[in-house]
Amino acid sequence: MYIPRTLKNIFHQSGIHFPAVLITGPRQSGKTTFVQNELPGVAYETFDDPLNRDFARQDPVGFLNKHGDQPVILDEIQYVPEILSYIKMRIDSDRRPGKWIMTGSQQFHLMKNVSETLSGRIAILELPPFNIAEAEKGRRTSLSSVIWNGLFPEPFLYPAKRDLWIKSYLQTYLERDVRQLENIRDFRAFEIFVQMIAAHHAQEFHPATLARNCGVTQPTIKSWAKTLETSYLAIMLPPFFNNFGK
Q1: 98 in a domain, yes or no?
Q2: Cβ 71 vs Cβ 100: under 8 Å
Q3: Considering its fold, how many domains does the chain have in total?
Q4: Predicted pLDDT of residue 245
Q5: Are 27 and 70 in contact (CB under 8 A)?
Q6: Residues 181, 93: one domain?
Q7: Among 53, 101, 113, 144, which is disulfide-ready with 81 (CB 3.0 to 4.6 Å)?
């Protein structure tokens, strides 16, 4: 079931003006579903496939030649960041808009590579989980169900899967994303940290309390919090100051 996203209009406008478009956002927020439904018939390659990853790393020119001059969707681009420099060369020789459509799930490292390589050549858009307007298009809902099931597409549309989905999501996050972002030695302590952050949603961030409860240092807690931000699992809101100099 595809629910049209609010990002739809700006996505198509970006494809008219930029040679490349990058859709970022947390894992399983609907990025792949979005681009495939908005661009039906466009060639699709995913770097979740280890064969594609190896091909792109060993022969990036050959990989990019697969689809000739046709537009292509490159899913999970963060797994092969080295291919961005080759895409840059293609764009510099052919700036036709909408040729390269990419998705990615890791904020800091992906943005660093993109900003260094494709600056001025790419539109960067963020696709979070459903907002309320999108959710109401999919099914009748209530505030209590939104709070309990969340707005990630899978548990929202199929509430019976909620508990299994959360468990699988956390396991995948720990085994794949975190290992790439952070050298974490005690995964059990990190898992407790994630659970405590979820339990303290919309409250003040107190590294000292979290460090004491997780049995790690405050610098470790701050580093882990940055990891959650990098992978879109947490948003840290800065305090409001009347003094803009602060």
Answers
A1: yes
A2: yes
A3: 2
A4: 65
A5: no
A6: no
A7: 113
Alpha helices (H) in 94-161, listed in sequence order: 107-117, 132-138, 143-149, 153-157
In this structure, the answer to whether residues 110 and 22 fall within a common structural domain is yes
Boundaries of domain holding 173: 147-230
Residues 155 and 122 reside in one and the same domain: no
Same domain, residue pair 118 and 152: no
Q: Is 209 exposed, middle or buried (0-12, 13-18, 19+ CB in 10 A)?
A: middle
Q: Are residues 99 and 180 in the same domain?
A: no
46, 95: one domain: yes
| Digit-coded pLDDT (tens) for 192-230 | 999 899 888 889 999 999 999 999 999 999 999 988 888
pLDDT digits (tens, 9 = 90+) for 69-102: 999 999 999 889 899 999 999 999 999 999 999 9
- Phi-psi map region of 204: left, alpha, beta (phi>0 left; psi -120 to 50 alpha): beta
Q: Which of 201, 202, 199, 221 is nearest to 210 (CA)?
A: 221
Q: How far apart are CA 10 and CA 37, in angstroms?
A: 15
Inter-residue contact 90 to 64 (CB < 8 Å): yes
pLDDT tens figures, 96-106: 999 999 998 76
83 neighbors 64 (Cβ within 8 angstroms): yes
CA-nearest of 36, 32, 38 to 14 is 38
* Closest C-alpha among 112, 233, 77, 89 to residue 170: 233
**């609907």: which residue's tokens?**
30
Note whether 187 and 174 are within 8 A (CB). yes
* pTM of the entire predicted model: 0.85
Residues 154 and 225 in one domain: yes
